[in-house]
Design brief:
This protein is α+β, with helices and mostly antiparallel strands and about 240 residues long. It has 7 helices and 11 strands. The chain has a 5-stranded antiparallel sheet. A hairpin with a 5-residue loop joins β8 and β9.
């Protein structure tokens, strides 16, 4: 099938593990791709892109399996490049910077950073993959105080449409970094690594849990709209 070989953990339709590979968080999106490539590194992603182009099959990238619609992270008869086995995290404590591979889920990432005394606005669902939430903006419970996930993105490693591995940060390909932070839909390539600014966690945090009956919805909503823009941003 051409000169390029698929690398990583490669599972074709009919291979052992294929039925497991199909399953997503939302069963509505499940389809039958031709092949899954569980990438172990950026080179595996590059090879998969080149292979797909050479064999003229469609491709998608998948991280946390949380896509809400068909055709976003899986494709019938195509290649799904799954980065879920790429989960390395390294923390530069001195500069408060975390470098994260795009396959890790939000839960383990947040817990790992918390153990080191750091926090970041990584959403509210522990099973979402960091790969997709970052490009989608990434709203979380800390967004009012420290911004969206994308606001805290300061660099990334990406494999482009030709299979070339490129780095984007403040000193190289800064337009690509800008675009990936919300300037253009987050679809410029297959991201394999993100660099985030993280924040020192406070010594204590207070959690409020207030519940109203449905029939009070209009009153509560109106009150919330009136105070929300002006209240302390830590809330």
């Amino acid at each position: 099938m051409g000169s390029i070989q698929l690398t990583g953990l490669v599972i074709f339709k009919g291979d052992p593990g294929y039925e497991e590979a199909i399953k997503n968080w939302n069963p509505y999106v499940d389809v039958s791709p031709l092949v899954f490539v569980f990438a172990q590194n950026s080179q595996d992603v590059s090879n998969a892109i080149k292979w797909a182009r050479e064999n003229e099959v469609p491709m998608r990238v998948r991280s946390g399996r949380h896509a809400l619609d068909k055709n976003l992270s899986v494709v019938k008869g195509g290649v799904v490049i799954d980065v879920s086995e790429m989960q390395k995290v390294s923390l530069d404590r001195k500069n408060a910077i975390a470098t994260v591979q795009t396959g890790i889920h939000v839960g383990p990432l947040v817990k790992g950073l918390a153990r080191e005394g750091f926090m970041a606005p990584f959403g509210d669902s522990p099973t979402v993959g960091i790969g997709g939430i970052t490009m989608g903006g990434g709203f979380g419970v800390l967004s009012r105080s420290i911004g969206l996930v994308s606001d805290n993105l300061i660099g990334l490693k990406m494999v482009d449409a030709k299979g070339k591995i490129i780095q984007a940060d403040q000193s190289s390909n800064e337009d690509l970094l800008w675009a990936s932070k919300g300037g253009g839909g987050g679809n410029f390539g297959y991201n394999t690594e993100y660099t985030f600014k993280v924040h020192q966690a406070p010594k204590t945090a207070t959690v409020f849990n207030i519940i109203w009956p449905w029939e009070q919805l209009e009153t509560v909503f109106r009150a919330w709209q009136q105070w929300a823009p002006f209240v302390d941003e830590r809330l």
